[in-house]
Amino acid sequence: MPGTLSIAEGLQALAAKVENTNPHAGKESILFVEDNELILEIGATILTELGYNVKTAVDAATAVQVLVDGFEPSLMCCDIVLPGGMNGVELARQVAELMPSVKVLLMSGYGAGMMDDTVNQDGFRLLSKPYTSDELGSRVRHVLDGTV
Question: How far is CA 42 from CA 20, 57, 83, 98, 130, in A?
Fold first, then answer.
């Protein structure tokens, strides 16, 4: 039949259609900084499945090295409590100063639910842990779009 797609073409078209209908999807680059390896893996997986290019770091030193190595994220999602001498707020301040185009989403398990959609004194958006995949995807998309 004229106009009929091959199976491979049809699956690609379907994937593109499904991807485009997810309101949280994106193509931007994200640096995900989290010291809890399970949360790090889950968060990175959620964002990768939404189409984002994700690099991870378990502490501030690793995050800085990822940036020094040339990764240029649109957004840094960062746990507030990090090991190694620099917490997430300090890291976010330094990154924002040196790379002003990078947006920041801070995450914390302290005060669960009370921080959501608030802004800290530096103007960084906050997300309480635990969060669902939909909450993470939504907050990331909104921070990237500047709609929160």
Answer: 22, 13, 19, 28, 11
